[in-house]
Amino acid sequence: MMRCSRVWLSNASALLATFGPFDIVQSAAHSGVVEVQMNSRNNKLNLLDDSFVRNLPLAMAFLNEDLNSTARVAILVGGDDRPFSAGLDIKSAMKTFFKDVSSVDKAKVAVSTALGVSTKIRDGGEGMPAMRNQEMHRVIREFQDSISSVARCRVPVIAAINSHCLGGAISLATACDFRFCTSDSKFCVKEVKIGINPDIGTLQRLYPLVGQGRARELTFSARNFSAADAKSYGLVEEVFADKESMLTAARASAVEIASNSPLAVQGAKHVMNVPSERAVQESLDYVRLWNSAFIKSNDLVSFGTAFATKSEPQFTDFVVDSTSPPIAPTKRQV
Ligand SMILES: *[C@@H]1O[C@H](CO)[C@@H](O)[C@H](O)[C@H]1NC(C)=O
Ligand SMILES: *[C@@H]1O[C@H](CO)[C@@H](O)[C@H](O)[C@H]1NC(C)=O
């Protein structure tokens, strides 16, 4: 209970459990309302690092496996004065991307050295990439399943967003059932600025909320956008002046949800998930293969170098075979 003093508590609330960065707190307002407070132990920005990714599904499983159905609705929020999340932990991601570099890949070694991450140079790392690429496939699945655990949680999850909601945090926010934010929130679908095709849910769960055109505009430009923009696009439902008023509204909404039939509410979520999450999974499986093959690019090396040396990356790689599966083969191609 010692931790209660440092988590965001309105009044008397009970800490039910802790999984890595996630403190699960039962609200005093209604026993069925729980807050999943994000308090990364490794940084102040709730970055999606290994601990975050590994523990998020455990926190969601706790809500799923609570057989007495104490938890009827969850609010996902940055603890204390923390932001929602600033997205991928670039340093630890670079470590994953470059951990199996071959001794001939001097550029990658240089990036890793500049970033101060340890690089394991494997004997024979310059051989055929099948085994190394499968390791990437596994890592991407871990990230995808982590984010999907929120979308597929038995109980509704309300995102309460303040300050940063960047990159991978967009996938986390869009995996929630609906979203409130503060007026100071900053959003960005940042991945293409670092040379990565978003692969943990943004491409799948953003466009149903904001439309294909807006989703593409935000993804391709990777530009910053405001809380007011997010509201007008349909990414968030409501904007509040500050975190306290946002949480007050999120708690009121949660109390209303928690006072309804859990069977009916959870059934409604489950049924609404069926068509969307089936399509999401199919697309996640596709992008996982795509990125397993193509994520280790010159562009990513260029970004890594630029990140380490605070310079501008030079992007040059491109897609060679642009035939995508939904396009029926023409006679000539057959
Ligand atoms: C459910 O609640 C009952 C009565 O409070 C308790 O005895 C039981 O252990 C609880 N079961 C679980 C799975 O928490
Ligand atoms: C976008 O926002 C980030 C921080 O949230 C900032 O560092 C960056 O300079 C902004 N980009 C532009 C073009 O304003």
TrEMBL record:
GO biological process, one term: fatty acid beta-oxidation
Signal peptide start and end residues: 1-27
Superkingdom in the source lineage: Eukaryota
Gene Ontology MF terms in the entry: delta(3,5)-delta(2,4)-dienoyl-CoA isomerase activity
Keyword vocabulary terms for this entry: Fatty acid metabolism, Isomerase, Lipid metabolism, Signal
Pfam families: ECH_1 (PF00378)
InterPro entries linked: ClpP/crotonase-like_dom_sf, Ech1-like, Enoyl-CoA_hydra/iso, Enoyl-CoA_hydra_C
Pathway: Lipid metabolism; fatty acid beta-oxidation
Annotated family: Belongs to the enoyl-CoA hydratase/isomerase family.
Protein name per Swiss-Prot or TrEMBL: Peroxisomal enoyl-coa hydratase, putative
Native organism: Bodo saltans (Flagellated protozoan)
